[in-house]
Amino acid sequence: MPDSPGKDSDTREDDNVSHGGYFHNKRVKQRAQDRALQAQMPAGSTSRVLSGCTVYVNGHTDPPRLALHDLVVRHGGVFLHYLSSKGAATHIVAEHLPPRKRVEFRNCKVVSPRWLLDSVQQGRQLPWAPYSVLGGSALSAFPVTSVASAEGSTPTLAAESSNTPTVAAEHTNTPTVPSVSAPTVAAGNSITRTVASPTVPATRADAPSTRADAPAARAETFPTVASDPEAFLRSYFEHSRLHKLSEWKARLRQEFVRAHSAEPPLTAPPTRVLHIDFDCFFATVAFLHRDKRRFPSLDFARDPVAVCHGRGSSDVASCNYAARALGVRNGMWAASAQRRMPAGTTLTLLPYDFAAIEAASAAFYAVLRGCPDFRWVLPVSIDEAVCVLRGEGEDEIALAQQLRREIRERTGGCTASVGIGASLVLARLALRLAKPDGVYAAGGDPSPPDSFWEQFGVRDLPGVGGAAVAKLGGADTATLSTLRHSTTLPSLQTQLGNKLGGKVWAALHGQDDRESQRMLLDPCAVFDRKSVAVDINWGIRFATVPQVDAFLDVCAGYVANKLRECGKRAGNVTLKLHRRAAGAPVEPPKYLGMGRCDAVSQAAGLGVPSGDVGVLATELKALFRALAVPVRELRGVAVHLAKLCGDQEVGPRTPGQWLGKGRVGAGALPAPVSTTPKATTPKGSAGTSAERYRRLRVSPVKDRAAVPRPAASDPGVAAFLEALPSQLQREVRRDLAGAIGESGVGRGRLRAEMQRRAEAARAVNAHLTGSGGTLLAPVRFQGEASFKRVCRTVEAWVAATCSGNGASDGPHERDVLVFLRYVEKLCVGDRVHLALRVASLVSTALALRETSCGDTRAYAEWEHILVRRVLPVLNRNRLTFQTERKLDVEWEV
């Protein structure tokens, strides 16, 4: 059937129209249709509120796009169906934007649909900044680049990579601290992301829901770890949930130790224990303090609610029981939790409210500490405590119900559950049966009946996970009652090992393991701080070694400040680094997260416990170089201080310590001797007797000369002198040889000593300046005595071992030994300055070839040689030549 003439004519006409002309004609027709639609609207239903506004809608919105189109046209605005250029629209309406759109629209007015609705409702155009999805102009404060571009590579985003999913499933290798939503811009010195702001009447840019009453968003700028490590660490801790939990827990335990340190430990285990825990604490607090204007109909008991920083790869910190019934679990990614929602159900994501969480925790512990029936209130976490009853006469159920009512009243609606048992393990199991919002007491003497154990599986026991269940041979489906009657202590120890097997056997019979018993009997010893640590596993991206050194300085300052707060010093420091695993993507699914990593660590003892920032920073830098992890492969840094002791346990280094007489603490030192004579009042003639004048005629100089001096040959004195630096040794030996008195012999000795020193100084100056020839035998390297030629040889050697083609593994060991012998000969021959020059030459050559060295193994090997082998030689000899020259020498290698 032939085509109609009309259709053929239209086709030929369209073929003659250019691409730009087609869209121009389309835009004209759409505006004509909008004017016709406005003319057809009833009188009184239109206005000029949006006059002068050209609106473009990006993505899915609530109200939908068609409703917003009618609203804009009805009230005098111009609606753009497509965006020919960013300057064509005065306002861009969006619920949320992907990272690339945030970069593209960073200089535009991107508002939520609420701005249109509120402006029409109030009859005037409201200020757009409070409704901004991007938070105003904060995103245009810095040039927009990425972290990759800062390191010299092409700027990319994880969501744009062809082999990287934009929304990844739950990733077991991704760290959970902090659960920060994906930053959208890495702008040179900052990382920008959106966080909830319940006080601003706008729509969250990262809200998972499309509801119009979603929380607002504002832009927040985070410094990068490379540009400003101190600000990065501060911002990291401000937004890290697990950091705050750790800080609150440590503070609660320190308060307990201070309050009960004078009390003696218990001699027998307590008879009744209460385990009290909030129900989905973070989610409850976030729900109680939500913006009720935006969530007026949210039902906490029926609607699924979760708490996290944002959406996508943010970790779920807490969720209510309605969400748990649908498969949501703590630690799950928000995107994975959203996919578990059935059709028609929306998971409501609420932001953290750390101030409200801390206030609720304080009220919780205030109620428990105010109960006179408790001997101890042992803090487990900010929302969990173990309470030890004073006796058995109390009505435990009634006491628990009263505590739950008081907690709910004092916290404004937070519910708590209570488990009661004769041991801590029974109280924990009873708490499982009490949740949510209930009380359960595990009865029975000495152990609960089988009906109690039938309600639990093997995984309900504390400390038992999937690996232990696999060793038990498919006991995952068995109840604890079955396991109690089918196993013995030897069989459990054979399958699980002596320690875990004994712990499981004790739990199956209602008994606590040794650690739990120790916490109940002597909690102060358990709660006393044993270590201080900092662990950063998000945002770690470095390009150079100095950037790593600066970050380690900040970490050292942080842990040193924590030591100062708890009055401790550390005797051991451990550096743990997370290196990108082989085959893992450079940018993991979680933006700036760790991804799959290999962990390496190394520890060092400090000798004398210390809390000095300089000491800790020096050890950390040495450990970093010993681990030899390429800086661009770093994804996580952790610093751990152990073997803590109190400040009072570390006394000054006294001669008794050097002579092997043990440590003398500061409290054991004698009181300072006063040099001021006591004031006396003359009584009668005794105050002016001849004895008084005889005492005054005694010469102080003769008294000091009369004091016997120890001989330098004394074994104890010799051992003491050997422990001193060489410069102090000479001064003490000269002092022991005899003081210079007022006699002629003393003056002659002084004059001879001054002449000898002047001659030595002239000889040294002649040697250094080259005037008068050299006083020392030449030191040769590979048969070459000229130091300039030696330097050229060493520089060529370094260049050959860092060729840049990736074929070298660094210098050969025999070459290194020859070089070290040359450095040692320079030091022994009073040429420490030359040894320092050649070491600095190697360091400078490595710094110049850092970016061009193709194989990082060669560069790491050279750094190891400098730090671990050359620097010790220089440090051992730093005072040898300095004794005569009296110069300050610092190795800048």
TrEMBL record:
Residues 1-34, 200-219, 669-690 are annotated as: Disordered. Residues 273-465 form the UmuC domain. The keyword Nucleotidyltransferase applies. It is found in: Nucleus. Its main location: nucleus. Residues 1-17 have a biased composition (Basic and acidic residues). Deoxycytidyl transferase involved in DNA repair. Transfers a dCMP residue from dCTP to the 3'-end of a DNA primer in a template-dependent reaction. May assist in the first step in the bypass of abasic lesions by the insertion of a nucleotide opposite the lesion. Required for normal induction of mutations by physical and chemical agents. Involved in mitochondrial DNA mutagenesis. PANTHER family: DNA REPAIR PROTEIN REV1. This is DNA repair protein REV1. It comes from Maudiozyma humilis.
